[in-house]
Write a structure and sequence with these properties.
47% of the residues lie in helices and 17% in strands. The protein is built from 7 helices and 6 strands. It has one domain. With 181 residues, it is α/β, with parallel strands linked by helices.
Length: 181
């Protein structure tokens, strides 16, 4: 059995422990976790998470970052295709960044889409790169006092201080996370 699979089993056990979704104590800070894994284990992680979502009694919302990104622009898809065709990739990225830099738009949409959940799984980090970065999203949520536990499933390496997408890209912002398993 792969190390990633064993860690996923530990993570599932941990999230099902009593009190995981309702931290208590001084400050009662809501934790943000990272589950980092080798990018080549992406299918193992996806398959396992599908099972967790079916097995658990916890109300978990999976937020796939690329699908979240698309939801922000669902009314503007035709216009974005036109921008891409006329101006190329750089113009498309510039058009997207204008909206993605607006902290309120991102946070309000994220909160709206995860409203009823007790725990959030953030997936699809590699699919959304470089348009939206997971650490930037988490910082924006933290700045708005988002009070739900989050687990970021990250195809790369977490050093304890920084995230390295695919184990090599070091362009993620630093953000305070704890490894879940």
């Amino acid at each position: 059995m792969s190390q990633t699979f064993e860690r996923l089993k530990q993570m599932e056990k941990r999230i099902n422990e009593e009190g995981f979704t309702t931290p208590t104590g001084i400050g009662s800070e809501i934790p943000h976790y990272v589950f980092d894994y080798p990018a080549e284990d992406e299918l193992i992680v996806r398959t396992y998470l599908e099972g967790v979502l079916k097995r658990t009694s916890i109300d978990i919302k999976e937020m796939h970052l690329f699908q979240f990104l698309l939801s922000l622009f669902e009314d503007d898809v035709e216009e974005l295709v036109e921008i891409s065709e006329e101006g190329g990739y750089d113009e498309l990225v510039h058009a997207l960044q204008t909206v993605l830099e607006d902290q309120d738009v991102i946070v309000e949409s994220f909160v709206e889409q995860t409203d009823d959940a007790k725990l959030i799984f953030i997936t699809g980090v590699g699919s959304a790169h470089p348009l939206i970065r997971s650490s930037q999203l988490l910082k924006k949520l933290s700045n708005h006092a988002y009070r739900k536990p989050v687990i970021l499933f990250y195809p790369g390496h977490f050093t304890g201080l920084e995230l390295r997408l695919f184990g090599i890209l070091q362009n993620e912002d630093q953000y305070q996370l704890s490894r879940i398993s």
